[in-house]
Amino acid sequence: MSSVSYATVDVFTAERFAGNQLAVIPDARGLSDAQMQAIATEFAYSEVTFVLPPENPENTARVRIFTPTTEVPFAGHPNVGTAFVLGRQQEIFGRKPGQALRFEEKAGLVEVTLLGNEGVVSGARIIAPQTLQIGPAIDPAVIAASASLRSDELSERAHRPVRISVGLPFAVAEVRDLAVLSKARPNVSAFEEANTRYPLAEDSFSLFLYARTLERPWYVRARMFAPLDNVIEDPATGSASAALGAYLVSLLPDADAKVELVIEQGVEMGRRSIIAIAVGKRGGAIREVSISGDCVTAMRGVIEV
Questions:
Q1: Which residues are catalytic?
Q2: What's the N-to-C CA distance of the chain in angstroms?
């Protein structure tokens, strides 16, 4: 029987046992696809990453990302957390804050910058691998049913419910206020119906709900439900946060803009996460979207395979 080492980290937080849990296998050589999926299912976190040698030696690593049920082409907190784990291996690689890494993933190349101070890596900033993709529009009744809400509890002051992506697609909708957001609950039957009506080749129907105020439009509270991927609720969803930030900035009338957002997630789960999003818009088009956050190490161990 062989074994592989793992580390778990809490992502988008500077406080241990908050944020979003991630398991990282820093050396996944020799593992089959079936073993990777089995390990991800065993952890039952929203994602587990497997680090492999890059296909192009100019890149840092090839990173594969698995949910408890499937492999996905891109996700935010797995990239931030994986970069943190690799960055903390300074005694081997000599990595320090400010260093750039590059991950090969199914969605494309992910550019990474290690963050920290006094020579200690404390997190990472990543660039979303794809441009903003918008559509289709989603029937508000589908959103409301999926979240166990009434249709009049949704808000269309900024946009109608829609599927958006910068690497991994999500249905996104704004709700009326924090009270509505807090009472949302996933309805699995409604999710199954939505998945049939709005199918995806690479993933199942997942829903990102958010609330914000007119006074603080760039401070967002959010929740993400993906019960068809065995993720009843996710404490932090960087890929959805990045897509939302890009979409909201795309709706601004300005042809050029640089906007920084803070997205707070996981509060209702007792795992508060803080996700920093920066969006650059030039000539009327979204040019760059970054996702940043802190991380802390939680556990280390060995898996028998």
A1: 47
A2: 6
